[in-house]
Design a protein that fits this description.
The structure is a homodimer. Chain A is of the alpha/beta class. Chain A is built from 13 helices and eleven strands. The longest helix of chain A is centred in the N-terminal third of the chain and has 20 residues. The N terminus of chain A is likely disordered. The structure holds a DNA duplex. Chains A, B: Keywords: DNA-binding, Transcription, Transcription regulation.
DNA sequence: GGTGCGCGTGAGTATTTGCCCATACGGCGA
DNA sequence: TCGCCGTATGGGCAAATACTCACGCGCACC
């Protein structure tokens, strides 16, 4: 993916400088080109490179009245300790884009604490977006721990791993869950759970001071299905017994009560229990499809913090 | 300046939403127009309004190698507790633009502390830029105090007042210095200093946990001259006795030793004494003209923290 | 009630930007 | 050594954006 680090650094430096001149200095790409002694096209490419590489962060410093209202309503109805509602980006546009900056701010808020905290993390696209939107901060006083593994059934590790990226950005000690998300048999699971390494990570995760999780829907586009953890038949069976959503792979019904499924015995991750104000669990999720799953998790208190977007917030409250 | 608050809010809301769709969502202004049901021009105006009003903040998440080097060199040479060097924006462009975001970050760093702090502030364009670039944060645990008044000799209050704006953004209790910067006679000054209100503010400022100041040059374009605190003759006389710069109106020589001037007896503000690591004084300043003033202030330790830009940093180190 | 002023609006236009393509450069294998 | 391929570069062009101008509306003052 990259050339020599030296080369990369120099090009990123150039990109950063061009983007700085463009966004902070307000120069045109023409002016940047002559300032830095390159062609306009190159200047343009550097700026877009900087944006693509996430070197540039844009933040909105204004609380939209509508979003503030929705936040207040959600806080009141579900007794949330944290709640952020960001403007929607219109249909057919990835809501992760909208909520990632706000989620990153929530994370930064935790990271800014000077005392040492244990921060537990789920997986998923929304959390990945959060980490990408995060500014690098040195916060080595905290410990990061995974609620679940990042190895899929087929052994691939692509399942939107979050903890390693985050640890890299904040330079904090981190404890990934060194196991597959799901194993084939109850016995395998028991063996894994007995490993000291696994037991220590589980213990840390269960004692987390704050937890960030995604929330999965159980409709036909369920992440558990698209990521290959369930077959369509299994999904339909679980839907039939009333599945409404899942957090870290653990499936619950419309009241947010965890279901007693055969699947559970093969899940290796930590189940998030009812959140308390002292040990909040922040849900990071948005999208039409997730409304029911979110309402359920909020109802029972699996999550007591929420970062979502405007249409999703409205949908949750409409129910 | 503004219409009804209601009207303002609604228009800012629109602007913020348009800017969100533009910068975060990546829509074109055409798409924003149809999404929000307005004309393309209106969408464009809303976006530029949001930028002008400071609703949109852009930050660069990359440490340019050259800037990092300069920071390290400045830290080492002057024993600084904080140091930020931002890329220059080229000549003939306001360096405040470049350093304001970094200065705002330094301020946010202090504001994020959970313990209660006393934050003292000077005045000037650079500090004003810092406050404008600051994200609104609730930090009512801190107290903000002014080092000097904001009333000029002619009674006008325009001298880049900082503390009120800052207090508005962070909702912290604030203590402006309720006097002119400079008075006509020593007796007037004595009278003012004896007022309880003034004594309390002075006491608070002198005990500040952290201080943010601009740094003024004493060349022909001295802020003290352009703001009408000195006549050209006075300036030349002070230059003759070796003035190199000024902090909060107090003038020092090339070694950063405060000068014993007749003017001093008419200055009402608090003189910033040698900074300590426990009670840092952060200088916010950049520009060719300020190099000598900065080097002097750094040499004697009037300031032990610095936010500046690349050419200024290089100039300071070159001496 | 008229008149002037200021603000916001939309149309038109100049500038800027993003994208595509032809081309040049450099590494690598035949 | 030659030729191929992948990558980066600059020119050109269409789209997008910013600016200017003239108009219209509302408000206040006369």
């Amino acid at each position: 993916m990259s050339l020599t680090p030296e080369m990369d650094a120099s090009i990123d430096d150039q990109a950063a400088r061009a983007a700085w001149l463009y966004y902070v200095g307000g120069l045109t790409q023409d002016q940047i080109a002559s300032e830095m002694g390159l062609s306009r096209q190159r200047a343009q490419r550097l700026v877009s490179r900087a944006v693509a590489a996430g070197l540039i962060h844009v933040r909105l410093n204004h609380h939209l009245a509508r979003c503030v209202e929705l936040e207040a309503a959600l806080r009141a109805r579900f007794g949330l300790v944290r709640c952020r509602v960001m403007p929607g980006l219109g249909p057919a546009r990835d809501p992760v884009r909208s909520i990632a900056p706000a989620a990153a701010e929530e994370m930064e808020r935790v990271l800014a604490e000077s005392g040492s905290r244990v921060i537990a993390l789920g997986t998923g696209r929304a959390l990945r977006g959060m980490v990408d939107a995060l500014s690098p901060v040195e916060a080595p006083q905290h410990r990061l721990v995974s609620l679940l593994g990042n190895i899929a059934l087929d052994g691939s590790a692509s399942y939107f791993e979050v903890i390693m990226r985050l640890a890299e950005k904040v330079r904090a000690p981190h404890y990934p869950m060194p196991v597959p998300v799901l194993v084939d048999t109850v016995e395998e699971n028991r063996t894994l759970q007995s490993l000291t390494a696994v037991r220590k990570v589980r213990g840390l995760a269960q004692a987390a001071d704050v937890t960030f999780v995604g929330v999965g829907q159980m409709s036909e586009d369920a992440p558990l299905l698209t990521d290959g953890f369930l077959t369509p038949d299994e999904l339909h069976e679980i839907q039939r017994v009333g599945a409404a959503g899942e957090v870290a792979g653990w499936i619950y019904d419309r009241q947010g009560r965890y279901l007693d499924l055969a699947l559970n015995a093969r899940l290796t991750g930590v189940r998030v229990e009812i959140a308390t104000p002292e040990r909040p669990v922040i849900g990071i999720a948005a999208g039409e499809a997730k409304i029911m799953a979110l309402r359920a998790a909020l109802t029972s208190g699996i999550i007591n913090g929420l970062v979502t977007d405007e249409p999703t917030a409205a949908g949750i409250l409409a129910g």
